[in-house]
Fold:
Amino acid sequence: MVYNRGMKYKTLKNYSEEQFRRITGVKRVTFEKMIDILQPKLKEKLSKGGRKPTLILEEMLLAALEYWREYRTYAHIAASYGIHESNMYRLIKWVEDVLIKDGTFSLPGKKALLKSDVSYEVILIDVTESPIERPKRGKNATIPGRKSDIL
Structure:
């Protein structure tokens, strides 16, 4: 399978703002800000003798967003981009590390939230799986009646 570099991004680039956000999970402005943060780090990495990545920078970010948003496995994402699973892991990890170190997208700490005048409403939803009781199969599954009543 030959993957056409940049194909996903070329398609997404033409989407409306709403469609872009629905697919990627972030607004186009946020996506571009992330690219602005990643670009100098990629140039720095390449200037130190790193290998040129298989995917363009926008595709790298899209792959990371797919991982974060959809919880797809590295194997599935790698297959859709035409690269090996281990390369996809390293790529997503690099994007994650760069964005975390930059701090632009980090959430405020607990103390900042407590000191702020903004009130937050938190809704917790329990989505843990629990086993379902199902009737057992076999002779002993039903409650037998008294044998004396049968005659």
